[in-house]
Amino acid sequence: MTDPWVALEPGADPAERVRTLRRAHETFTEVGTVPTPVRSVVADSWRRSARAGVGPDGTASVELADGDLGAYRAEHPLARVMPLFRELMGTFAADGEHLLAVCDEHGRLLWVEGHPTTRRKAGRMNFVPGARWAESAVGTNAPGTAVAVDRPVQVFAAEHFIRRVQPWTCAAAPVHDPRTGRVLGAVDITGGDGLAHPHSLGFVQAVARAAESHLALLAPQLPAADTPELSALGRDEATLLVGGRRVRLSRRHSEILVLLARHPEGLTGDELQCALYEDESVTPVTLRAELARLRRLLGPGLLGSRPYRLTVPVESDVSVVERRLETGAITGAAAAYVGPLLPGSQAPAVVRLRRLLADGLRTALIARRDPDLLADWAHAPWGEDDLEVWRALAVVRPTSAVRSRLAALESELTARPARHGDRRPVALTEAPARATYLQPRRP
After folding, report:
1. Does residue 353 contact residue 341 with C-beta atoms inside 8 Å?
2. Segment Disordered: which positions (predicted)?
3. Lower CB density within 10 Å: C or N end of the chain?
């Protein structure tokens, strides 16, 4: 086959290919090896599905329904391009007895529309809005696999990992946030064997690109000249987008800007010194020198004094996460959280803010009980030893891999005090001590 991403090359006999794939699927489920005729993208997906604990006789679970589904869809960025999806694909789906489906970045179906008879048939396998069709939940399928590998993909008949899905053929393409490049979800066309044609793959890819272009038009312009943007999550040295230029800050300057952005009313020299330095022997002269260097770096007019303050509002990725948490937009908050705040900083107020932000998000994730969000946190560098998150994940996704990791963490928690005195791995599993300095001030 010339293109491994196309399910059926021109001239191939669909019936013969189905028989070959069924034999290959049985071989894989029985002995774990993938015969040669199976495309590499499908073989890799089968292996990931097996590692995730998916069984060939499983089914999708419905995680969101009624009001919860409606609220989640209204909040999701792809809601803004659903009219475009319907305009470009709706008639094609209805006339061809196919389905138009859109999933989120976790493979959860948000919309399933199209021919009524086809919808009823698909409903028997829970291909319905609110059901989770992530590859890690139901194995190889076009929307779930497109999100997993971040590229357009076709899945033909018995290439599906779950047997009850094997009568279907589908093609899907991921849709990205045009500003950040993050995967927002995927658009999918599902139906019969006729969709194995290369044109269907090109079609959904073109629709996904049109959606990204439309999102770019709908997105507000970058407020470079008016509203500086501070990025401090997941990095030791923050960056500031200001006046159309991106400034990389030193660690100390990063700490100062994070704190001043947090306190638009300003901080006195004593407050700022207490917030930045553990060493009480550091003199005010040291702080004033740092502020003078920062003022020269930023340019005139941005950093004021008496008290020290930013003279214009600064948008930070920290505040984005906090706002989304406050409004209950947990998925959005998790997407915006790309890592701990200035992880190498030892400034007392930054350490406290870092813990508060991480604790607030992880508490919300545990309460939400979304297996994909919990898995994202648990497999991130900052969550790989987070015992409470792994415990929560084991409840909602009790795969052998999750149970094994949880057992290892619990064993480590028991054994480590004996090896290292009274030190033990907390990994954000305990509430941090609440500092008494520099309480966050809300306007």
Report:
1. yes
2. 417-443
3. C
Task: Give residue limits of the domains in the chain.
Answer: 14-218, 229-316, 328-419
How many C-beta atoms surround the C-beta of residue 422 within 10 A? 6
For residues 252 and 268, what is the distance between their CA atoms, to the nearest angstrom? Answer: 17
131 phi-psi bin (left φ>0, alpha ψ -120 to 50, beta other): beta
DSSP-derived letter for residue 281 is T
Contact 295, 257 (CB under 8 A): no
Q: Which fold has domain 14-218?
A: Beta-Lactamase (3.30.450)
**Lookup: tokens for 55:** 């069984």
Length of the chain: 443
Each residue's pLDDT tens digit, 205-251: 999 999 999 998 886 544 444 688 999 999 999 999 887 788 899 99
Q: Please report, for the chain, how many H helices and E strands are present, in that order.
A: 17, 11
Query: How much is the pTM?
Result: 0.57
Identify the CA nearest to 359 among candidates 381, 402, 388: 388
- Specify the 3-state DSSP secondary structure of 386: coil
Enclosing H/E stretch for 27: helix 14-31
For residue range 400-443, list pLDDT tens digits in order: 888 998 999 998 888 765 443 333 334 433 333 333 334 443 33
Task: Look at the domain 229-316 and name its fold.
Answer: Arc Repressor Mutant, subunit A (1.10.10)
